[in-house]
Amino acid sequence: MRAAAPPLAGRCILMKDNHMTDLCRIGVAISGDLLEKFDKLIAQRGYTNRSEAFRDLIRNELVQETWKSSDSEVFGTVTLVYDHHARLLPEKLTELQHHYHTAVLSALHVHLDHDNCLEVVLVKGKAALVQKLSNALIAIKGVKHGRFTVTTSGHDLP
Questions:
Q1: DSSP letter (8 states) at residue 24
Q2: Is residue 21 part of a domain?
Q3: Are 121 and 148 in contact (CB under 8 A)?
Q4: Which of 13, 51, 86, 139 keeps 20 to 30 A from 114, CA to CA?
Q5: Distance between CA 75 and CA 6 in Å, rounded?
Q6: What is the largest CA-CA distance in the chain?
Q7: Are 84 and 110 part of one and the same domain?
């Protein structure tokens, strides 16, 4: 069992140009191979330093934790690719969105080619409700690919 991390109170207040800031410096032990791969990844993604990449990784994990509480308010997108010739599929998608109208903020429909459409549904609501809606949309027969991406309003993230 791991020991609890020591409290941070009083350890992270730093002075910079006579202004207080709440930035904390930490040390991380990591293998050279893993660090090399991480540096390549963050360079490809356009990060200018490791600190911002670490902050984004931590924020992502905090958003995922929020998602675990079925009562949390979340925002997200449900992205669907489907054959619009599939029997009654467009009607089923629309009907389901109307059924969950309190969770649907907006929908974008794009014709990809003669047969395929892309639909992006913006959703907001309690995590359990939004997950139920996204699962139902993705599971409709005729949907070729679906993905639900969850995010947060950001007001709880530093």
A1: -
A2: no
A3: no
A4: 139
A5: 33
A6: 68
A7: yes
